[in-house]
Input
Amino acid sequence: MKCGNRFFVAISIALFTIFLTLLNIVTDRWEQYRGSEYVSCQLRGFMKSSSCEPKPSVGEVGDKVIVMAKMEDEDTSWVEDYLGDWQRAIYTVNPSANTPADTLVTPLNKGHEAMAYLTYVIDNYDKLASTIVFLHSHRSGFLTAWHVDSPMHDNVWAMQHLQLDFVQENGYVNLRCNWNPGCTKAQRKNNKHITWDVWQELFTNTSTPPAAAAADSDSETGEKKAMYMPTEVGAACCAQFAVSKKQVQQRPKDDYIQFRRWVIETKKDDAHSGRVMEYIWHVIFGKNAV
Output
């Protein structure tokens, strides 16, 4: 084979390999982020045959609550408009002089959604709803809600199809099913957010104090259950989950006060303290580290 032909063949093979690699990546992302649903809904809307828009929930308000953190200028009216059968506890994290007096607010704008979540539990510990859903303030759309595993990434659809009996049975349920990001093998082995120091700081002075050395199991220490630092910590992102009242109250109120104190006092900034909480909620609520 002539040199020119060999070069052409080599380039063709290289380009074909790159094409297959890119095709696999695009296909994976298309399936992961439900691209076909967006196309289908756009076509249906264009042809005016039907709509992908969910209908508002009807019925009496149940023994269930949606807890949410929002910036003051964010519009969360969709919760009341479409999920009227849920109680609502929506916290403004950056109140101003113009914030209405009856608005729920957090003591500090730090830790992303964690500050609102913990504030709700602390303030309502003795009067919790049977099912508590901790949810983001955005409703839908790929750009803001790519991590919502429901048609059109719509939190309304997710809430309308949430199996409350399953939440009660399991105690804690992450609302994201896809393991990426947060729980792939590589990510949980190299979790840079849940460090030894963070583990010690978070669980000291709680009902599950950190044990003296790392291991994979727990041990009983007096009346408190010492928790060993696990070798791996992983959870599907992105801090949207449901818990039962019973599961929340497996810990005393003082534990949640300690967790919020850590968020407030840690030197980690808003984003990094929030990321720590994002990957530790499942442990707080009694699930295995992975």
The first strand starts at residue 64 and ends at 70. Residues 65 and 199 are 29 Å apart (CA to CA). The chain has 13 helices and eight strands. Confidence is low (pLDDT under 50) at residues 213-221.
